[in-house]
Automatic annotation (TrEMBL):
This is Gibberellin-regulated protein 12-like. Keywords: Gibberellin signaling pathway, Signal. It comes from Camelina sativa. InterPro entries: GASA. Belongs to the GASA family. The keyword Nucleus does not apply. The lineage of its organism: Eukaryota, Viridiplantae, Streptophyta, Embryophyta, Tracheophyta. Residues 1-22 form the signal peptide. PANTHER family: EXTENSIN, PROLINE-RICH PROTEIN, GIBBERELLIN-REGULATED PROTEIN 12.
Length: 107
């Protein structure tokens, strides 16, 4: 009689662990772990934004507006695309944020 009860308890624990992990990965306030490793939305902390934006805007001739908008976007999305130009698909939040005229807001 004890063996079926032990099997039942172990099965219930395994199911509980499986469902608790699934909820953690899908919580809306946190980016999936894969983005944290690769860069991407939610991969930065707000205090990392100035240095990342300095890198992103290092080759532009319009440094002041680039830094202003990059920091604004980074503080909202917690992401700065790699490189100094392009790669905006790495940060969908940045890529989808537009001005009133429909132009991209983030550099």
């Amino acid at each position: 009689m004890a063996k079926p009860i032990v099997v039942f308890i172990v099965s219930c624990l395994l199911l509980a662990i499986q469902f608790s992990n699934a909820e953690e990965l899908q919580s809306p306030g946190e980016a999936p772990a894969i983005y944290k490793k690769m860069g991407g939305e939610g991969s930065l902390r707000p205090e990392e934004c100035p240095a990342e934006c300095q890198r992103r805007c290092s080759e532009t001739s319009h440094k002041k507006p680039c830094l202003f908008y990059c920091n604004k976007c980074c503080n909202t999305c917690l992401c700065v695309p790699s490189g100094t130009y392009g790669h905006k698909k790495e940060c969908p939040c940045d890529d989808n944020w537009e001005t009133k005229e429909g132009e991209p807001k983030c550099p």
